[in-house]
Amino acid sequence: MRIDIITIFPDFFNHFFEYSILKKAQEKGKAEIKIHNLRDYSSNKQKSVDDYQFGGGAGMVMNIQPIDDLITKLKLERKYDEVIYMTPDGEKLNQQMCNTLSLHKNIIILCGHYKGVDERARELHITKEISIGDFVLTGGEAATAILSDAVIRLIPGVINDETSALSDSFQDNLLAPPIYTRPSNYNGMKVPEVLLSGNEKLITVWRENEALKRTTKRRPDLLE
Predict the structure, then answer these.
(1) Rounded to two decimals, what is the model's pTM?
(2) Could you give the CA distance from residue 149 to residue 3 in angstroms, rounded to a whole number?
(3) Are 84 and 110 within 8 A, CB to CB?
């Protein structure tokens, strides 16, 4: 998968993709990350990419021109499965959406800033709008980092044990069950005996029951 990220703060991503699974995904050739500085496509001498909004009101708006020029250039170079805009009024990100995106070959992610982007840029190029929650950030960079992390780890071949991702929370609309490691007895706090039994069938049933109980208690909305 190739991910082209459009931002006015390219340095934000300097180290984000250099650790853990994200780094391994790139080393394996499973993911390719390209960061594009939107200011490089500004048509004015100041390299500004924002202006006052028509009709008045507080907050600056990102211009359509550099966004259009950059996305058009990228589209001429390859076919993109999705052009994504990170925005609070987008569709709420969930695990099922990440599963679908992980199967794509090429995607563009536009990071908004200021008050947002000129609506015409959304109408012209954006195919999917995504929100990471009902709150507002100073820019789309953090949201883009979260989306990229959630998607890249699901790309087939990125995680050595692919069944690990399949047992994550939300994969089957359930929260993950409790997990334990050594020691089996810590100051009188013992690991459930079934996990030490070696009986895979009983362990599977226990985990399914615990996942259901935890979801019912913490996120009953997932069961609706």
Answers:
(1) 0.89
(2) 11
(3) yes
pLDDT digits (tens, 9 = 90+) for 25-81: 999 999 999 999 999 999 998 999 999 999 999 999 999 999 999 999 999 999 999
How many helices (H) and strands (E) are present in the chain, helices listed first?
7, 9
Q: What H or E segment, with its residue span, contains residue 191? A: none
Name the fold adopted by 167-223: Trp Operon Repressor; Chain A (1.10.1270)
Q: How far apart are CA 205 and CA 196, in angstroms?
A: 14
pLDDT at 113: 92
Domain parsing of the chain, residue ranges:
2-152, 167-223
Superfamily for domain range 2-152: SPOUT methyltransferase, trefoil knot domain (3.40.1280.10)
Locate tokens 């980092």: which residue? 145
